[in-house]
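2024-03-11 09:14:02 DEBUG pipeline.ingest accepted 1 chain
2024-03-11 09:14:02 DEBUG pipeline.ingest length=368
2024-03-11 09:14:03 DEBUG pipeline.predict start
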Amino acid sequence: MNPQRPRHMLEEINRLAAELGQARLMEVCGTHTVTLFRSGLRSMLPPQVELISGPGCPVCVTSQGYIDAACRLAAHQDVMTCTYGDMVSVPGNVASLETQRAAGAQVKVVYSARDAVRLAVRHPDRKVVFLAVGFETTAPATAAALLEADHLQLRNFFVLTAHKLVVPAMETLLRGGDVPLDGFLCPGHVSVIIGADAYRPIVEQYHKPCVVVGFEPPQMLEGILAILRQLSAGETKLENVYAVAVNESGNTVARRIMERVFRIAPATWRAMGELPDSGLELANEFERYDARVHFGLTIGPDHDPPACRCGEVIQGKAKPIECVLFGDKCTPTLPVGPCMVSSEGTCAAWYKYHREPTPASRPMTTVE
């Protein structure tokens, strides 16, 4: 890219923002949130462009009931629980996977679902359970791991699935009408799998511009500019400025694997309740690998810890700084809610990169 291009884009963004007066854009993906802060891009934008974080952090949208079920499962003496690292510190109602591990539970951090399959092969005396959390980005890897486990005829490998689908959550936010939005920056890595056309219902039914973007600051600028141009022209379109990685139909091989292993089902999202057709459960053919069935697990009700506003943060209804716990009772070292735990969490990003002065009405005990 021409080194002058970002400067020219910023100039046009400032001009269009002045014309529009206000533009409220949601970056759905937690990685986008972190990039905007870490690069300093957010501070370069004019005040008329308000960026709102959405429900794009996989750990943050996982229900409290699922966390509690995972902790109960980890307490079984013959169980080895495998999880991605961000899940370990998420507080449950009475425990976390971290505290369960400190008490002697076999909790293993893995880098892929296939790592969990390998552990099941090496430890035939253990029941190995993989905590399958994430959006369409990680769901194909879980599906591939299940196909491998099936090929190996493993009887000690199980999955506790909490995979979510991005577009139904976006539709839920728009139907609710609580958060006025003018457009979406759509997540690049999810779009690699589902394709840009997956967002067409948002454009056609809800008349909101959608632009698929990658994770480099210049490309995020390009995405913001594309939405502002649409708003200025009175247009609503689906655009893809991440064509180097995303096409219209997505990764057909990955989608085919997902469709074989999973079926679309209702799913419970933190603070958003049960959303129809927003999650993935194991297809009947793979039900014997379902940890809920094998262990008779019940996913209990969802709830946030007292005073925690993570549920509002992931829906764009509140900023982290508006939570009375932020930066005081809730920090990355001692998190209260998942948004402060995950590396993609909005609260963690605000804490690390953007701690604004605290309102006078809310005293702080931390030293900046």
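2024-03-11 09:14:41 DEBUG pipeline.report Residues 188 and 214 are 5 Å apart (CA to CA).
2024-03-11 09:14:41 DEBUG pipeline.predict end
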